[in-house]
Write the structure tokens for this entry.
Amino acid sequence: MNFTDVVTPVLQHATLRPNHPAFVFEDETITYGELADSSRRTATALLTAGVRKGERVAVLTPNRPEIFSIYLGLAMIGATIVPVNPEYAAHEIRYILGHSDARMIVCAAEQTEKLTIATDGLQIAPMIRDFEDLLIEAGDADPYTGPQIGILQDLVLLCYTSGTTSLPKGVAANHRNELASALAYSGMMAISPHDRVLVTLPITFSYGFHAASYVAMLSGATVLLEPRFHPRLALEAIETLRPTVFLGVPTMYAMMADVAAKSERRYDISSLRLAAASGAALNEQIVADCEKHLGLIVRPYYAMTEVRPIFSFDLRQSSEPPKGSVGKLIAPTEARLVDENGDEVNEGQVGELFVRGPSFSGAYYNDPERTALAMKNGWFRTGDLVSRDDSGNYFIVGRTSDQIISGGANISPLEVEDALLCHPGIASAAVVGCPDPVFGQIVKAVIVKADPALQEEEVIAHCQRHIADYKVPRQIEFMDVLPTAPSGKVLKSELV
């Protein structure tokens, strides 16, 4: 198979509907015809810059529609995009660049200084290209018509996600994985060319990149892309841009409901036929607040970066899932709930969730040890504790690990602890997630001082220099000693 086979599901809309809007960003509209042309020109510019089949190109920039021209251009030449969160600290970026062995990194101008620090010390430093300069070069390049070298087995997307260890894991997806996932999402949400999908999620994360944006493109819908999320601006965008679909994490909906509750006017969100939430547990208070203050019914669904989607609502049914449920299993994903002995549990009982499906390659990128821990007989171990009722509705009840999910972002407690412990005034530290009505969980650090004069403000400032802002502890507690079990393990359950 050649590249036309793997990019056609998106670019065929350029032939069928060349004037149909693919993206609306700020005051600019990009049609599918223009997207196809810019993608082919970007492929030529990337080849001219030295990128070849099988290589990785990292992209470090805020939300921009041109990121997808890079994505499709890389697909045409058989290369891989590696989205990187611009909020990451230099050492976090360094790990991703080194682990992915990125050939090039395309960045916004304001990220250049951070990247200079991030690439310092790398055995093989990637080329650093300014985002705007690449766009200019692509605009001047001839459309790519070279060898058709991209195939379904090519690695096309490499997303790094935090887990329960200190280092992020690379979730690798080839074209087959991406298409299988996107087709499942598209069917689940009944996306069509008539839809306008508002995307305020960061597209450096899988949720914003794939579930929100790529799925819309695959279906020929219009992506209404915003630079970032702000609750009031999101509500105003719904009023003025008239989207039909909005996807977000529960925190976003909580903030929007709060803005509406405090506003003297009623926001017009009548254009929305679907508002979906994922990335963290959607609690009943957020659902109730959205319905009360916005007149909005928020539907939950459950997915992971590795396997997507897994559980969801069903638009073909008029009845809603029971309260607290994330819906039913979405084909072609399969699921098992097992006890600690590996035996499947009965309906109504809680078991650890194992899943498998064509959306996951079955391995973390260049990481056989953590792949072995995550996979068992071809099934992916999610770490989530789940129950199922006799109607096939699933309920997430907890985690087997201490991973923190705050505002839809996965945070490794060990990574935050590592940042804390490099401060000379901290003797020991433990990090936990505490319940929060808006964010689901917030990061709490419990610290034993080495320096009696150490203050909370200094701890926060230290963390801000070493980790991304969303990982910085929002609560800090000082203790004389951390509670431990006889084995010496810190009893984190006592710290929440």
About this structure: The longest strand covers residues 426-436. Residues 3-199 form a domain with the Rossmann fold fold (CATH 3.40.50.980). The chain has 14 helices and 25 strands.
